[in-house]
Amino acid sequence: MPVLQGAEAWRRDGGPVGALVLHGFCGSPVSVRPWAEHLAADGVSVSVPRLPGHGTRWQDANRTIWQDWFAEAQRSFVELQERCDQVVVMGLSVGGCLALRLAETRGSAVRGVVVVNPSLSTTDRRARFSGLVSKIAPSAPGITDDIAVPGATEGGYDRVPTRAFHSLRALWALTTAELPRVTQPLLVFTSPQDHVVEPANSALVLSRVSSRSKEQRLLPKSYHVATLDYDAQTIFDGSLSFLRDLTRAAEAS
């Protein structure tokens, strides 16, 4: 299936500091491209993979499971690691969940973590029946373009692929259970007005990681896809400052 325009994977080679930037479930690289470009403009080596089953049509996502998405994230991480001295993982929504999973499994190879409205759970009671629903209906109504800026679009699906969502719940459970393994410096951006991921997800991450350095910054003017919203610059500038602090700390040591 052809990839939607703008939803292609993207990378730029720069300096010795690398950033792996991951998009979310039912989204595409469109949602994080401006974030990645801002980092690249400052000399950061950036990689934005397109997760399998994304950026085409929702039916393709139903042919994938979370291990496929994570395998692509790992492949891109290793590739970036080979040409950089240090790599920070970043992600939006489920991309944030994948970034945290990389931090859990890759240890000190991950220098730091930046997540925007990370998705690790839902309070929607219907989710508990995802296994049954996935056998009955291939998709369900979804929310795309949860962005306060008029006319902005993330290049995502307006249907939730139910089999893929059922697999996503397994990723949520595993990542949540192993959050204490995250020891890297952590920066969490949270939109109080998020109509897709409950802001309590950010609180969950901050309360369970073992990071000595962890910070939360609020995005009061933005909805879920904050990387394309009114507070995007806060994310871009905050991420660069985070990278610079890590670099200074590495040089000092």
Describe the structure.
By secondary structure, the chain is an alpha/beta fold. It is globular, with a radius of gyration of 17 Å. A seven-stranded mixed β-sheet has the order 1-3-2-4-5-8-9, with helices on both faces. Strands 6-7 form a two-stranded antiparallel sheet. The model has no long low-confidence stretch (mean pLDDT 96). It has helices at residues 33-41, 58-61, 66-82, 94-106, 130-136, 162-177, 200-208, 232-252, and strands at 10-12, 17-22, 45-48, 86-92, 110-116, 139-141, 159-161, 186-190, 214-218. The chain is built from eight helices and nine strands.
Short description:
This protein is α/β, with parallel strands linked by helices and about 250 residues long. The protein contains 8 helices and 9 strands. It is globular and about 55 Å long.
Q: Secondary structure elements and their pairing?
A:
Blueprint: E1 10-12, E2 17-22, H1 33-41, E3 45-48, H2 58-61, H3 66-82, E4 86-92, H4 94-106, E5 110-116, H5 130-136, E6 139-141, E7 159-161, H6 162-177, E8 186-190, H7 200-208, E9 214-218, H8 232-252
Helix pairs in contact: 3-4, 4-6, 5-6
The main sheet comes to: 7 strands, mixed
Instruction: Give me the secondary-structure category.
Output: alpha/beta
Order of helices and strands: EEHEHHEHEHEEHEHEH
Given the C-alpha coordinates, what overall shape results? globular
Terminal Cα span: 49 Å
Fraction of helical residues: 25-40%
**Radius of gyration from the CA trace?**
17 Å
Strand fraction: 15-25%
Major beta sheet, strand line-up: 1-3-2-4-5-8-9
Write down how many β-strands occur, each being a DSSP E stretch of 2 or more residues: 9
Count every helix, treating DSSP H or I runs of 4 or more residues as helices. Answer: 8
Oligomerization category of the chains in this entry: single chain
Uncertain ranges: none
Average pLDDT, all residues: 96
